Amino acid sequence: MSATLAEHTEPAPLSISRPPTNAEIVWDRFFRGACFCFAWLTILLVVLIIWEIGKHAFPAMQAQGLEFITGDKWDAGNNKFGILPEILGTLYSSLLGVGIATVLGVAVAIVLTQDFVPPILEVFLKNVIELLAAIPSVVYGLWGIFVVIPAIRPAANWLHEHLGEIPLFGTRLSGPGMLPAALVLAIMVLPTITAISRDSIAAVPPKIREAAYGLGATKWETILAVILPTSSRGIFGSVILGFGRALGETMALAMLVGNASNISWSLFAPGNTLAALLANKFPEASRVEIDALMYAALVLLTITLAVNVLGTWIIMRTAVDTKGGR
Amino acid sequence: MSVLPIRRQTMVEGDIDLSKLERRLREPRTLINAALNWLVAGLTVLAMVPLFSVIFMLLWRGGQRLGIALFTELPPGAGMVGGGIGNALLGTVIMVGIATLLSVPVGILGGIYLAEFGPNTKTASVVRFAAKVLTGLPSVIAGVFVYALVVTTMGTFSALAGGVALSILMLPTIILTAEDAIRMVPHRMREAAIGMGCTQTQAILKVILPTARPGILTGVMLAVARAAGETAPLLFTALFSDYWIRRLHEPSASLAVIIYDFSGQPYPNLIEIAWAASLVLVLIVLGLNIAAQFYLRKSFTK
Q: What's the CATH class of domain A68-325?
């Protein structure tokens, strides 16, 4: 556009404006090109990541086939690899963590938006939750080992002794296990769930709330019957995104989940996740084992991509809906 | 809102029987309301416990070792006393520096494309989608990718590979915040610049970028903070080293990896070092986060 302007403007002697020189136009073209290339680089990076991991996983895919996904032993000595315990462990720990985080996150989101506390306290609360996201996951892992595990061990073992018949409490908590991992995971996804739920609850038009009050509803009847259903899709999107984050979370789990190829309902039994498997086995793996780990990485990548795309799509659709409703 | 005062008025004379509007404590709906109030209050307090517990533990267990030696000495071996995290701190700074050099130009130019040159093109929506995918990429996958691409080609674990892995995790934050910051610049400013005869490039470099600078810098600071705390991508790209880093193409220690390695050791001295390293790492990360927020707020009030 500026190039065509340059052809038409007469030189005006007393004006501070002037048309661009040819050199400036060439520089403009170059800069546009550079921006375009760098934008494309982002797309290329995603393609390259998928291609590169797929390429390295291919030998293992040929050698192991689908048994890789259904097998439950990781035996590097005999070149037998199976990641079923890791897939199930990833889903189990993430579901537990996200379940706990959803209860806490939605409660905090309600407190932050429905005039429960004075505005100053609201800001303080919001900052505390946001700071949770800033703490590196390896620090949470360290904290989990030395604070969470000792803190929950007596209660866990009491539950096992008295209610041991229930599969959930089927084993003792001797150290690392599913529950401490899930608790720390819950803390890590809490900021994601709180922030997005808070936004979607705050987006509910105030007149809907006032109408409910006007009909004589109590505060909680309004929240449960009007506000939460109206914002449910945004909350659901936040849960899916939190789930996506939990699936890929590595360090806290590698430090807390126990790294045992073990399938168990028990909250206190050690288990493993895909990301923790990669973190623990990769540094000392042999050539063949690395191929198998690449295959595991591809499985993890596929699962997290699918969950994240779904979550983003739900939130985008909610945004369009609320805009249309106004 | 206007309903609330009426509820609290218990005895008011009037034509209608206001006592019917009065809420009785024993009525189930009132009880449920009160119970739920207490429930969310409890859950909210519960949600705040972890942060304070983490901070308390860091100060208590990590604070003991805070001193000059922590920053100048090499990590101790098994069973040894003393030692520090000097090489790990230097390694983290170098690798985050490499990652910043790689991701900031790509991120800002990409953000400019998204906000200025083709905000509504198909390319832009695909780029935005790709950036969102990268945001959700598990950090360990970035490590696996860089292992396959850089470590196997170079034949050695290296600080360089660690930096590349971190840059992949920084890129989406920078590109998306840069786009947002540039979009916040009022339209009349770019129209004025172009009306004066600027090319679009001149308008961007001389008018729009300086105006959007606080937002862009905030994004960069947040990305740096995130990268500094990442462990998984470094585990098998930079690996670890007990010595000071001399060249970029050899393995390097980092704060995050030293915490992971030492957390599982049976020696109290190493555990203490892990807590001290955590304290330093959290101070860096929180410092960057708070600085970013403060800087953004200050530039808005100006």
A: mainly alpha
